[in-house]
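Hi R.,

Here's the chain you asked about this morning:
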Amino acid sequence: MSELLYAKGLSRFYGEQAVVKELNFSVKKGEVLGFLGPNGAGKSTTMKMLSGNLSPSQGEIIINGYDLLAEPKQAKAHIGYLPETPPLYKELTVAEFLSFSADINKIPRSAKKKAVESVIERCGLTEVTKRLIGNLSKGFQQRVGIAQAIIHSPAVVILDEPTSGLDPIQIREIRQLIRDIANEHSVILSTHILPEVQMLCDQVQIINKGQLLFSDTIAGLRQQMQSSSLLVTLLAPPDVSILTALPAVNLVEQISPSQFRIHYSPDNDPSEAIVSLSVTQQWQLRHLSSEQHSLEDVFMKIIQNEQEH
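And the predicted structure, written out as tokens:
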């Protein structure tokens, strides 16, 4: 099995209400899967189910070949989990806490010292090993949280809103750390921060109200962001029906008497036809530019399309 994590038909109900409904996905080694959605979309509930902290109402989860429901101990041994609020003992030093984390993950005594030293170095904690966790900045506490999640070299690392509440410098450092972790593990990242997905993820899943609205690679998402509309200014424009009849044009919005937004099929840009006709039909073309769609535009469009159905 090439997938380190595989989930099928994942659902969670509270009474009649479906908080998560029929999610399917898989993650391979070296991949980062981004769960993107507004607050309350069901991201944290999904993370809790994947980490074995919450039983799904239905569906199956396979972690590195082990069924999480049928073989929970074996499956959980291959999971590293950082909840939204890191599970830290703030009265311990960093070194003490990571030693404890090694113990509860059943790292053999002979390998424990090396595991602790390795994770301290990987997570940039060398300068704070003897300090109490409660006295550290939020950024360093988040690093400690990530360190406890990866100390036993799990196949799958699940991170729930890992940069929440951090300042811009801390966010950049944590994102770099996540990139490094992804080289050796499968990473599942829950976030509502759009740039985080663009910067870190190979696959993207957009969920809202517990339902999967979009599932594709980051390349597929970027393709959705490519321009598929033109802004055109014509001082002597034809009737809108003439513009609408152009090849590949799907819709024409009239913004003002002389300005139009022309929506077209992504692989068939009508710019050349518009320029050519402007000359022969004397439409007096003054402006033509393509509109670039941001990730936010794509995200809002996906969410709004779902709400309209």
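The chain is about 35% helix and 30% strand.

Let me know if you need anything else.
M.
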